[in-house]
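Researcher: I've been going back and forth with a colleague about how Hpt domain-containing protein might be arranged in three dimensions. Neither of us has a model we trust, so I'd like an independent prediction. The organism is Arenimonas maotaiensis, in case that matters for your notes. Sequence below.
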Amino acid sequence: MRENPMENRAPGAVLDMARAREAFGDGEETAEGLALTRSLLARLLPALRGPAPDWEALHAIRGCAALLCDPEAAARMAEQERHLRAGGLAGEGFAEVLCALDTLQDEIDAVLRSRGG
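Model: Here is an independent structure prediction for Hpt domain-containing protein. You can compare it with whatever you and your colleague have in mind.
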């Protein structure tokens, strides 16, 4: 089995992603799926905030946005991921991505609170 570098940076992230995908398998937003996605974001965001942000974390976070059926956010993150892979993601554009991810976390938190989670 191949080592997953994401697991080294964010222990448990791979399992969280698999569980979140399973929870969203029928396309319905569930409290469990939201909680798992929120946990995954919390694990991955530090990998983006460091001095050398990496595209693997952004790719996984883009997966979170897709799980949450937020195609606009997923498309924005896909574009940023392409820039990051090419070595060009920095400054204002990257700050916008981090801001969008913070907003996504806040939205998940609000939904979980409204459901008593």
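Researcher: What would you highlight for our discussion?
Model: I'd start with this: The chain has a mean pLDDT of 66. After that, consider the following. Residues 91-114 form the longest helix (24 residues).
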